[in-house]
Write a structure and sequence with these properties.
The protein has a single domain, classed as P-loop containing nucleotide triphosphate hydrolases (Rossmann fold), CATH 3.40.50. Helices cover 51% and strands 16% of the residues. The protein has seven helices and seven strands. The chain has a five-stranded parallel beta sheet with strand order 4-5-3-6-7, with helices on both faces. Strands 1-2 form a two-stranded antiparallel sheet. The termini are close together. The N terminus is likely disordered.
């Protein structure tokens, strides 16, 4: 992405001459991160790496931690990427440090609950995009509901602190509503 814009409230401020090459898209489960990351990849031409495809095998089996961490470390070495998801605490904070751009999806908790439910209903018919084929929708959805609370109470405060402090050295987009997500995407379209 060229001439990226920095999110300031509902406005987007151009960053002169900036070139975005390494983007971390993160937030609580069911917030539309994967959809947003796909849209950013389509608009920017940057390669997209959904962590669910790296962390889980077809059928939903988890990749051994060492294998996942190795694959993640290899991604971070690439010249350009959009990485969508959490993975694990170790890989997440490494990714945030290496990214030149942080996109934090921080919607109201109720929205996350609704979107997890919507993903479940759709997932009964077709595997969600960015998920390994044959992912167990019922088990994954129950896990998502559990993760919603854990993330909200434990990670959300850390994420908010991260994006607040990172503004000094990185491009940060803290998206708090569907309207802000759409405005952000429109800003990227306009370049």
């Amino acid at each position: 992405m060229r001439a990226c814009r920095r999110h300031v409230g509902s406005q987007f401020v151009p960053l002169p001459g900036s070139i975005v090459k390494k983007v971390a898209v993160f937030g609580n489960t069911g917030g539309g991160k994967s959809t947003l990351a796909r849209r950013l990849a389509e608009l920017s031409g940057l390669p997209l790496y959904p962590l669910d495809m790296i962390q889980f095998r077809p059928g939903g089996g988890e990749v051994p931690r060492d294998e996942y961490l190795k694959a993640h470390a290899e991604l971070l070495q690439r010249d350009a990427w959009i990485i969508d998801g959490f993975g694990c605490a170790t890989s997440a904070w490494e990714r945030f440090a290496r990214a030149d751009t942080l996109v934090y999806v921080d919607l109201p908790l109720f929205t996350h609950f609704m979107w997890v439910t919507k993903r479940f209903a759709r997932g009964l018919v077709v595997t969600p995009e960015g998920w390994p084929e044959g992912s167990p929708m019922i088990r994954s959805t129950i896990n998502s509901y559990r993760v919603l609370w854990l993330c909200h109470w434990h990670l959300t405060p850390k994420y908010r602190k991260l994006v607040s402090e990172a503004r000094r050295e990185k491009r940060v987009h803290h998206l708090r509503s569907v309207t802000e997500i759409e405005a952000f995407v429109d800003g990227v379209k306009r370049g």
